[in-house]
Design a protein that fits this description.
Subunit structure: Homotetramer.
Bound molecules: glutamine
Number of domains: 2
Shape: elongated
CATH superfamily of the largest domain: DD-peptidase/beta-lactamase superfamily
Strand content: 15-25%
CATH class of the largest domain: Alpha Beta
CATH topology of the largest domain: Beta-lactamase
Keywords: Acetylation, Hydrolase
CATH architecture of the largest domain: 3-Layer(aba) Sandwich
Family: Belongs to the glutaminase family.
Protein name: Glutaminase
Pfam family, one: Glutaminase
Strand order of the largest sheet: 2-1-7-6-5
Length: 430
């Protein structure tokens, strides 16, 4: 553990410990029985180390933080097109429990408000509420890395006081969004909202999203990358309800809040945060959790649009081992923008050499877009009357069986020898 990080987290939590603004969610009677002073935070690194401060081990109900996970499960189970046919992805700017659908499409505007979340439940496969809920419970548990259980008092309380949600579900049925019995769908929705989590669970669930669906604690895949990308996108635009714009500007992390007092926030590729404090603002977001996330984001530079550094040239060196032969050595992680710079630089220097050699020996990682650009470079050079060779011992760019195999070498020396032989032959022809 890093004592510095731990001390920092304790200190930030301490700063807001005295804030007692906000109200407990009283429209679900059982939620007023919690200790209003509870306050915890947990932060999970992307390799699964968790820092905890305050009441990070206190259980509370997940409530609306369930929504992104059921949405993800629906995406995974029936595919994006079937989900999109029933639920939009537009921010509603409305309260979470608004009885509304999109005026034109008659679908719920997004899966983070109750209407969309209830529709998402109906897309989870299952021939009975029990079967559906079992899938949901397993799915959330895989993200948390431990088995999550229901708070049966909150579930019962929510069920008896859930007229608003019943109104929403029946409205959805009337618009053909729900194909199943609205009461059965609602029963599963109430159960999913009543699953108990801790701030630490939320941090772990967030870290699993940050890791593209791989749970860093268990090492098991909970879902796949396209599902995560879609889910995080909707969390960015709709996760904090009518405060979504403010949240993105100030905090800049895909997040979801729940009336149980939790917030889950994700910094993709980096970390997951879970917070707990049950006093809520007028929008249903936990007052102290929002303050805490704001502060952490500001001080630790967690805004997802913070540019850590400009996309720098991935060119490590350019040299000429012989007249007419020029080697371009690239390194690091290659994505489209880096590869584009390399291709442009080679293109620009093209009149000054006969053979261009691209050395990718030191490339750590490369995506498909960059691979495509770099593998096409030889062809472009040939079109311009040049020879293009590549030094690619680990097959970062040129896969087995590629049409460019003849131009691939394992060392720069081999490539230079081949180039020299070629130029020699060409020279003696003249
Ligand atoms: N179960 C709650 C409801 O449906 C969830 C709302 C929330 O957390 N925002 O009203």
């Amino acid at each position: 553990m890093s004592h510095q990080v731990q001390r920092y987290l304790d200190q930030v939590r301490g700063e807001f410990a005295g804030v007692d603004d906000g109200e407990l969610a009283s429209y679900i009677p059982e939620l007023t029985r919690v200790d209003p002073h509870g306050f915890g935070v947990a932060l999970s690194s992307s390799d699964g180390f968790v820092y905890e401060s305050g009441d990070a081990a206190t259980e509370f109900t997940i409530q609306s933080i369930s929504k992104p996970f059921t949405y993800a499960l629906a995406l995974e189970s029936v595919g994006c097109a079937a989900v999109d046919a029933k639920i939009g992805v537009e921010p509603s700017g409305e309260a979470f429990n608004e009885i509304s659908v999109d005026k034109v499409t008659k679908r719920p505007k997004n899966p983070m408000i109750n209407a969309g979340a209830i529709a998402a439940v109906s897309l989870v496969p299952g021939s009975s509420p029990d079967e559906r809920f079992a899938l949901i419970q397993d799915y959330y548990s895989a993200f948390a890395g431990r088995r999550l259980h229901i708070d049966s008092e909150v579930y019962a309380s929510e069920k008896t006081s859930g007229d608003r949600n019943r109104a929403i579900a029946y409205m959805l049925a009337s618009f053909g969004v729900l194909d199943d019995d609205p009461d059965e769908v609602l029963d599963v929705y109430f159960r999913q909202c009543s699953l108990k989590v801790t701030a630490t669970d939320l941090a772990r669930m967030a870290a699993t999203l940050a890791r593209n669906g791989m749970n860093p604690l268990t090492g098991r895949r909970a879902t796949d990358a396209p599902v995560v990308r879609r889910t995080l996108s909707v969390m960015v635009t709709c996760g904090m309800y009518d405060a979504a714009g403010d949240w993105v500007s100030a905090v800049g992390m895909p997040a979801k809040s729940g009336v149980g007092g939790g917030i889950l926030a994700v910094l993709p590729g980096q970390l997951g945060i879970g917070t707990y404090s049950p006093l809520l603002d007028s929008r249903g977001n936990s007052v102290r959790s929002v303050l805490l996330c704001r502060k952490l984001s500001e001080e630790l530079g967690l805004h997802f649009l913070t540019v850590a550094r400009d996309s720098r040239s991935t060119l490590r060196a350019i040299y000429e081992p012989r007249d007419d032969i020029r080697v371009y050595e690239v390194h690091g992680d290659l994505l489209f923008c880096g590869a584009e710079q390399v291709v442009r630089t080679v293109d620009r220097g093209c009149d000054e050499f006969a053979v261009g050699i691209l050395d990718v020996t030191r490339v750590d990682d490369i995506d498909d877009a960059a691979k495509h650009l770099l593998s096409g470079m030889g062809t472009t050079l040939r079109e311009r009357g040049k020879v293009g060779l590549i030094v690619d011992p680990d097959r970062m760019v040129i896969g087995a069986g590629s049409e460019f195999e003849d131009f691939r070498f394992s060392t720069v020396q081999d490539a230079v020898d081949a180039a020299a032989a070629f130029l020699g032959v060409e020279g003696s022809d003249r």
